[in-house]
C-alpha cells in the first residue's frame, strides 16, 4: 500500500465519523502518478468546519489531490460542506443546503441511517473510512479499473466582456451502460483557508481543497447516446476565476454510480 499508507500516517489523528446529533507534509520522495492517461475516480468528502472530526479528513483529501497516490488513477476530489453543524457555534462559510441534500440522498442506497461527517464516497456507490487502509486502497483501485464513459471539458474560459460569466464545452462518449444518466457540472474553489472562531474547531486555521460551490445538472445522457453542449455559468463574487476548477461528471440517477468524470482548472 506504500504511499497511501504514508499519507495516512502523516495525519495528526484519524477522524471518527460524527453525526449532527453527536456533538504537515509526509516525509516521502515518492513521485505522484501522472494523470495524463489516468482513469478518473471521484472522491467525495462530506465535511464541515463545525465538526472536530473533519480536519484530518480534509487534510487527507489535500494529500490525495496533491500526490495522486494510486497508480493509473486520476483522483478527482470534491470537498462538500454540509449545513447541519452550522447551529453548533460556527457557520461554515462554504456550507450549502444543496450539498446536505446530496449527502442525504446517498445514505439510503449506502445503508446508512443518518448523515454524518466526515463521510467519504467513491464514485457515488462505495463508502470508505480512513481507519481501514487496505479497504480504502482496494476500493480506489477497483474504481480505477472499471470502464468509464469518456467525459471531456473544452474551451473553459471567463467571458472577456463579462468576468462573471464562465463558458465551457462539455461532451461525452456514448453511454453503453444499461441505464440513463445525468450530466453534472461542479464549480469548486481550488483552495480555501479559514480561521474558525467558534464551535468545535474554534481557534483552528483550516485549509480545504476543491471546495464545491455548486453542482448543476446540465443535461441527460440516455442509453446509447452521447452528450455535447456549450454551457454558461454565472459566477458569484466569491468565485475568483484564478481560484476555480470545474468538474464534469456523469452519474446514474439517485444519485447512483458515477460513470465518468473530468477535471479542468481555469488558466485565466
CATH architecture: Sandwich
Read across the widest sheet, the strand sequence of neighbours is 3-2-5-6
CATH superfamily: Immunoglobulins
Assembly status: single chain
Overall 3D form: globular
Mean pLDDT: 89
Q: What is the third-level CATH name, the topology? A: Immunoglobulin-like
Helix segment tally: 4
Biggest sheet, in brief?
A: 4 strands, mixed
Layout of helices and strands, plus pairs?
Blueprint: H1 2-9, E1 18-19, E2 39-47, H2 55-67, E3 73-81, H3 97-110, E4 116-117, E5 119-122, E6 126-128, H4 133-145, E7 151-158, E8 165-172, E9 181-195, E10 205-221, E11 228-234, E12 244-251, E13 258-265
Parallel strand pairs: 2-3
Antiparallel strand pairs: 1-4, 2-5, 5-6, 7-8, 8-11, 9-10, 9-12, 12-13
Features of this protein?
268 residues, alpha+beta, 4-stranded mixed sheet, 4-stranded antiparallel sheet
Structure description:
Strand 2, helix 2 and strand 3 form a beta-alpha-beta unit. The protein has a single domain (2-10, 38-265), classed as Immunoglobulin-like, CATH 2.60.40. 39% of the residues are buried. With 268 residues, the protein is an alpha+beta fold. 18% of the residues lie in helices and 37% in strands. It is globular, with a radius of gyration of 18 Å. The chain has four helices and 13 strands. The chain has helices at 2-9, 55-67, 97-110, 133-145, and strands at 18-19, 39-47, 73-81, 116-117, 119-122, 126-128, 151-158, 165-172, 181-195, 205-221, 228-234, 244-251, 258-265. It has a four-stranded mixed beta sheet with strand order 3-2-5-6, sandwiched between helices. A four-stranded antiparallel beta sheet has the order 10-9-12-13, with helices on one face. The N and C termini lie far apart (37 Å).
